[in-house]
Fold these 3 entries.
Entry 1:
Amino acid sequence: MKTSQELFTAYTGIVQKKTSMPVIKMLLSGIFAGLFIGLGGLGSQVASTAIGGGLGRFVGACVFPVGLFMVVMVGVELFTGNCMLVIPWFAGEKDVTIGGILKNWIFVYIGHFIGGVVLALSIYYSGLGSLFDGGLAQTAAGAAEMKIGLSPAEAIIRGVFCNILVCLAVWMAMQAQTVIGKAIAVFAPVMLFVLCGFEHSVANMYFIPLGIMYNGGLAVGDFLLYNLLPVTVGNIIGGSVVVGGGLRVLSKQ
């Protein structure tokens, strides 16, 4: 297992590779990551619907990390984890520019949206919503309604804490050198954020479009304005300011 200081040393090179990646590769990588996170979300909702109650919520939270584990093992780009790309920029590394970081964020984020919506459409037209006598469709619709109904402050705060945990999961997974180590590093923080009800912008690109399809009273504009925007702001604060800034301070000799 790498120490944090060893990872700090290597991370500038990692960021340079991520920010210099061709745009088409960023976009395609983002699409795959959106699909992976969405599939973890689907599994989570299937488990929670099948079991129900508090136990169902816990089991669903234990299933969801599969999505991030696939992201880590395949090596595709995840916007929320990439909120930490600012660490070497904070340190004054001249080869890492804010323009390169923003380019990565924007195209990876667009890719996530494509992947999440395509998966949501696929699940809707596959008929999987009929599982458990339509219970899965009700779960999806209820989750979307709850997420859109958050106040801006609630959405931002939940986004902050979500991405603190996601970025810590990604950082610890980079430290781990074995598959089992990476799985454990991903599982614990991500399970915790799902269990606590924190908000992940990439997951919501799947959860809410699917819920809108099952609940005609929900609007796409409300999803974008009242959930995705404030949650994304919260994710950036949690990942870039709290974790990125905090790790930069800790990296100082």
Note: The mean pLDDT is 96.
Entry 2:
Amino acid sequence: MNDRRTEKPLTVARITMLWMGNLFLTIFLVSVVLLGIWFISRLIHDGVKDSFASLWAPLIMIFLLELVVFWAGIIMVYITSVQLGVRMRILGLLCGMIPIVHLVVLVMIINITGREARFERAKMKLDEQRSSQQICKTKYPILMVHGVFFRDMKHLNYWGRVPGELEKNGATIYYGNHQSALSVENSAAELAARIKEIVEETGCEKLNIIAHSKGGLDTKWAVSALGVSPYVASITTVNTPHQGCEFADYLLTKAPAGLRDKVAAAYNGTFKKLGDTTPSFIDAVTDLTASRCRQISEYTDKFDFHAAGVYTQSIGSWMKKATSGAFPLNMSYSFVNKFDGPNDGLVGEPSFHWGERYTFLENKKKRGISHADMIDLSRENIVGFDIREFYVQLVADLKNRGL
């Protein structure tokens, strides 16, 4: 079964080009500053007329050379950089002709791409050093289960750069392929069928499941109620609202019925075009409320996962402040905080707990870790937290447990 939807990681060639582009821009910036200082000193010493009379030919050559160096550098970093982002690329284009400002923006671009090049080169070196160890080559393959309002797509991986990093270290990855928004019971039914399909077609016997957000609730139901526990070696839930979200109860009760229906109809219609057959926005949101999640957990947690031979663990993270997350999590953080306390932008910390082991991620740096960061949604290299390496070590631990 070929189920690879892994985003292409930064290759050696791309990282080399990124590094060279950054070097060209650095050379350009330094040379422009030094040449500017030198030329001003000549103007002061020789005067404007004499300076231009004696230097016009070399100045033209220098200008053309600087243009080549600059455009070579900017094109290379624009093509290869992941961390530069759309906003900084647009800012660079808009400010390119504004004196002084364009140098400030250039410094920002050099800093961002320089950090990225150094980070990616270090990561490639680390992967090369441990390649023979295959630290993520678990006994059973990994099934990655997405959360609500997303699909597993061929050209846009829900898990960002994580699957590629796991595969480089020996992991075999499959995906849930379930619809984006259904009730927990209906999503679980699709996952149960998917689990059986993978096991039957590959002969792998069991799967290690890593499930994000609502995907954790769907997985628990599939394993506890739908008879697939013999095919599951472990379940790791990531930022899953096991006890639900109080703010979801508030939104459903306070939002006008007409507005809810319009949003639901728009969502369902859009995702039908993207591949869902029977999406249900309202059912999915309802099953994320605290009142409904408590009912779901009471039902699924009656099942003895340990006795069934299924290792269980949960992971959660904390944003720390609203600015730690991108839109819309930067908007929802403070709102969720009033209802659910410290949170990842959507789910409160007390709701993460489940299973035999619980890991709470708290970045020591100022930047927190959001609900979206846990699936590498923005593909950002967060200072103080390497999302790719976190999952490598997570899967390596499963391997060490004989799973």
Note: The radius of gyration is 26 Å.
Entry 3:
Amino acid sequence: MKKIMIINGPNLNNLGKREPEIYGSDTLCDIIEYTKKETACLGAEISAFQTNCEGEICDLLYQARDEGYFGVVINAGAYSHYSIAIRDAISSVELPCIEVHLSNIHAREEFRHHSVISAVCKGMICGFGKMVYPLGVRVLCEM
């Protein structure tokens, strides 16, 4: 059984209330439950975390490595666009990471078009709402 960690960054704890026209009406708990249901057939063990703190995301990445996780699905939120610390942590843990975003970051404000973590992730899935999470888990399970 592959252990997969899902890491959620800043403001994702406010899903369902925060700009539902962009992010949808589901809460983060709803999305994690949906992901577990949609990927149950894959036999993966999923652990999900959320933090608004950059350093805690780095700590979670190291925890994933140290605890033998197979890979990480990460929605670093706004940190995706400027956190060299998270980029370096992803690079150093040497685990396959799939970057996900609920919205299509390329169709939004210019500053969201570039992700500094993309270069050290296996790939990015964005713009499909809550479906990005089970898609990320599926990609990891099929690697």
Note: Strands lie at 3-8, 45-50, 71-75, 97-101, 123-126.
